[in-house]
Predict the 3D structure of the following.
Amino acid sequence: MRTTNNLGLRKPEGTDIVDIADLNGNMDTLDSAVKSLQDQTAASVPLTQKGAANGVATLDASAKLPAGQLPATAVTTTSSTLTYYVSTSGSDSNSGLTSSAPFKTIQKAINSLPLVINNDVTISIAAGTYNEDVSIYGIIGKGQLSLLGVDASTFVKSVTSVRSHYVYIFGLTATTTSGVAFYSAGTSYTLFSNCRTTAGANDGFNVAFGRAIIYNCVISNVVSAAVSANNSTITVDTCSGTGNGYVLYGDNSSVIYTKGTLHSGAGMYGGPSLSVNPWGDNTTSSRPLVWANRSSIQSISAGVWTRVVNDVVIGNQLNGYNPPTGVFTSPQSGWYRISAQIYLLGAPSNSQYMIRCLQNSSVGYHMDLRIPPFSFDTILNGEVMLYLGFGDTLEIQAYAGSAVNVQPGGDATRLEIIRIA
């Protein structure tokens, strides 16, 4: 009598007498083994989880995951405006949500933020000395992150913002004596206002791969006061300070605009491939310029090009832009740079979305195209350089394969036009 290798089931040979007890024993062994497998399957994959969201997925007829069975995201986001408070008398074990229960360190407040900020978030920093290198990394979304110190009374070692979206830094004094006092890299837009660095850092303000405004800041005793690096664009507006090396420094096709009074230094400009006020006359008032955004939700119908009207005007030099209509009429002949962004709310999946600049109501220049694989917020953006004769018109249009709404706000939907030559 032989037996099977795994379960030891009895296997009568040709000359053996078949015993009913052997057959029954085999059946009992098989029954126990199958029951054990059923129990294990039930324990690891409960029936209530099969096909349920966040449970065990089942594939549809095309072998794809149905939308309702996609795993829940681990990325957190804001649902309303948020303020954290920081004070040297606080504790990082506090909630930080009230001025009576503040955090002790600025970094604790930043680390407590969700990755996605879709509402304005403020970190209110009381006067005092914070012996920390403040680091902002990877904060994205539609909202603005503001670090608000007390002008000339809130001290940190340095501030760094990397790969973030919209950051506002006010009233901080950097005390570092080496490296960079205020650094922004890969951040879409950074505004430094009423900040100070006078202790002798290598660079006062250094911006790489992004845009920034340095306004009403004090910069003294540094090697390079304001640096625009790696295709960045910065504006230095009404700053003061003395004892610097380079007042302005840039490289790799960077641009620096200046306005008002500037800090002083041994050298005015430095670095290769730097363009300072590329208009050429070192003024901003003599060239057409538009900066506008959308004030309210705008609906885009499916299958047609629709003009996007940015009706909130921040700047409109020489009055070429008509906010109610969204049409720019060139007040001067020349070359213009046109940059635009449209934020689409919950764009339906697998549809085509495009943005273009339309010249003289007839010639379109495509700036971006997106086909989202899932239904989520989608950003269209891009820029073109065009020659416009006097009286030529421009407008920004959007095309949607499925009907969609446009999100308002300067960080969401906006238009920028400037004559560059």
Notes: Residues 2-69 form one domain.
